[in-house]
Amino acid sequence: MSFPPNQRLSRSGAKVSINPDTIPAEALADAFSLAGSRESDQCCIRCGKTADLAHRLAWLECKEKCCLCDANAHKNSWCSRMKIFFPALFTREWFLERAGLGRWYIWEEEGVKIYQLVRDDGLRRLREREAAPSTASLLAAAVAAAAAAKRAPVLRFKASLDRALWGKRVEDKDEEMD
């Protein structure tokens, strides 16, 4: 069963249009309190679902339905409901804090450019972090280094002893040949 993009089913089964008349501003702000592209956020700005950081950083490219209009009509773009119906929530400060857009709106050309820079930089840092050694591998390397450090004095002593003995053996052989 599908509904027009601006309507959804409520818990009672009735169609509900998502607009300022049906959703109090406080409820909308609470719903979007976990959304954003920061590491501390938990949900995607577009689909509203709990998502990993890579998904949240690329929220404009999210393939899920938009949580505001329940449609996929504006893939790779922002939902017009942000600007038209909910400008009191989606302010410049909100986009600065939640999406890292500086003082720009996502619907401004500069906002899109900043979004792309933030997304690309965040994804690059995420890949670098994933490629970094884990705590377990660093601990294993530290244990191996500590064990090698403990063996090092013994090995140096053995090497100097071998040199001394080898030198003595060479002297002994020289004397036997004479």
Automatic annotation (TrEMBL):
<protein>
    <submittedName>
        <fullName>Uncharacterized protein</fullName>
    </submittedName>
</protein>
